Amino acid sequence: MTVALPLLLLMDAYVRDSPAPRNDELIYELMAEAPFEGHTFPFAHRVAVPTLVHLLPFGHTFSFSLLAWLSTPAAGGLAYVLMRRFAIGKPLAAGLAICLALSPTLFVASLREGPKGDPESVLVVFAGGLAIVDSR
After folding, report:
1. Among the residues of the chain, which ranges form H helices?
2. pLDDT tens digits for 41-99?
């Protein structure tokens, strides 16, 4: 969604970012430091985002943010496509997709600089839903 990304970045620039990672965010940060080592964290099964962060040539903070910033409008775009598959009108589908991309859950992931993995999870859920709909 070409509208959602600039809006998300504008909102993110306006609101103060979360302080240093703690709780779940700290766990994902630790996983990103060494994703191929054994972890006993409760979220050790969620390795895709920390592994991508580890592999990207940027710092962890920017990489987590980048993945959140790209996944959020992509999830909105997939939501739009999915709604259009069900013959929802273009204006309504676009409005709802933008609302999804700017929803509090996805916006907070941007403010926390992405370590939680929520936008990526939403993207995967919508991709899976679209794949199911298209296969029928």
Report:
1. 4-14, 24-33, 48-55, 60-85, 90-101, 104-111, 118-135
2. 656 557 788 888 889 999 888 888 888 888 989 999 999 999 999 999 999 999 999 99
Q: What is the DSSP string of 3-16?
A: THHHHHHHHHHHSP
Residue of 103, 98, 44, 52 lying closest to 76 (CA atoms)? 98
> Is pLDDT of 135 > 80?
yes
Residue pair 122/27 in contact by the 8 Å Cβ criterion: no
Long-range contacts of residues 92-98, Cβ cutoff 8 Å, at least 24 apart:
94/1, 94/3, 97/1, 97/4, 98/1, 98/3, 98/4, 98/7
| Buried residues in 53-76 as b, exposed as e (16+ CB within 10 A) | bbeeeeebbebbbbbbbebbbbbb
Structure tokens given for 83 = 């709604």
**Which tokens is 25 given?**
């965010």
